[in-house]
Amino acid sequence: MPHTFRAPTEADEAALLRLNNDHALELSELTADELRELLKVAWRVRVTDDLSAMVIAFDQDTVRSSQNFDWFKARHPRFAYIDRVVVAPAARGQGLARALYDDVIAAARAEGQSLLCAEVNLDPPNPASDALHTSMGFAAVGSADLVGKDKSVRYYTCPL
User: Fold this and answer.
1) For residue 82, how many other CB atoms are within 10 A of its CB?
2) Which residues contact residue 114 at a Cβ distance below 8 angstroms, ignoring those fewer than 6 apart?
3) What is the pTM of this model?
4) Contacts of range 19-25, beta carbons closer than 8 Å, 24 or more positions apart
């Protein structure tokens, strides 16, 4: 059965904040205001009806500054960027992360994008995310230590 996604509503924000912050090690913790701002400026946001999974994506025109997003902006004139994708433990193994990526890819292609960008933690490591990105055709194109955080990331791109 195919997965269906929708745009989040204001009523979803508390549950999405919990989902994000339950996975702060992989994503980075957010305040309610920070999540609200991400949802406002994002190019594409999709959630499951039960709020067990979400993706937040930007494109090159998104008005946002972060070390990882800025890394891609400095190197690519047009792209779509996965800022965060998260699936609750109880919903894993159903293909939701891949389906959320596929949704972003379809939207990016419809807008003429030819590159999808993302980053995955190197330290602390996130082998499941590395495996997903590799299986979807992403290639590692760089890495960085995150300023002010005890974390480093690997940058990935995938032609669309």
Assistant:
1) 23
2) 78, 159, 160
3) 0.95
4) 19/51, 19/52, 19/53, 19/54, 19/86, 19/88, 20/54, 20/84, 20/86, 22/88, 23/86, 25/121, 25/124
Residue 56: beta bridge partners? 45, 84
By CB atoms closer than 10 A (0-12, 13-18, 19+), residue 136 is middle
What pLDDT band is residue 148 in, cutting at 50, 70 and 90? confident
Which whole-number Å values give the CA distances from 74 to 5, 69, 77, 104, in the listed order?
Answer: 31, 9, 8, 21
Q: Which two tokens stand for residue 149?
A: 């955080």
String of DSSP letters for 89-107: GGGTTSSHHHHHHHHHHHH
61 pLDDT exceeds 70?
yes
**pLDDT value of residue 50:** 97
Predicted confidence (pLDDT) at residue 160 exceeds the cutoff of 80: yes
